[in-house]
């Protein structure tokens, strides 16, 4: 019985930590920051390309909704 509770506990802990990591990465991607440093992991990205793609996507949505 004791091993069952232990397995359940560790499954919950691992699942929770994985969820937190995934949500953190998602928030960092959506933040539109040029330079991101989190838990020793640092990366820099070019926002100009992403902004141009976002503008094209919005323009396409507007064109499709007006048709």
Question: What would you say this structure looks like, in words?
Answer:
With 67 residues, the chain is mainly alpha-helical. It has two domains: 31 residues; 34 residues, no CATH class. Helix content is 73%, strand content 12%. It is built from two helices and two strands. It has a two-stranded antiparallel ribbon. Strand 1 and strand 2 form a beta hairpin. It is elongated.
Q: What fraction, in percent, of the residue positions are helical?
A: over 70%
Report the major sheet: 2 strands, antiparallel
Number of domains: 2
- Give the CA-CA distance, first to last residue: 63 Å
Low-confidence stretches: none
How many strand segments? 2
- Give the count of helical stretches: 2
Helix and strand run: HEEH
Shape: elongated
Mean pLDDT: 81
Strand order of the largest sheet: 1-2
Structural class: mainly alpha
Keywords:
67 residues, mainly alpha, 73% helix, elongated, two-stranded antiparallel ribbon
Outline:
The protein is mainly alpha-helical and 67 residues long. The chain contains two helices and two strands, in the order αββα.
């Amino acid at each position: 019985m004791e091993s069952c509770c232990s397995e359940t506990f560790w499954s919950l802990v691992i699942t929770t930590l994985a969820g937190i990591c995934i949500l953190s990465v998602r928030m960092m991607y959506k933040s539109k920051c040029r330079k991101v440093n989190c838990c020793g992991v640092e990366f820099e990205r070019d926002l100009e390309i992403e902004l141009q793609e976002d503008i094209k996507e919005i323009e396409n949505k507007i064109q499709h909704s007006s048709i």
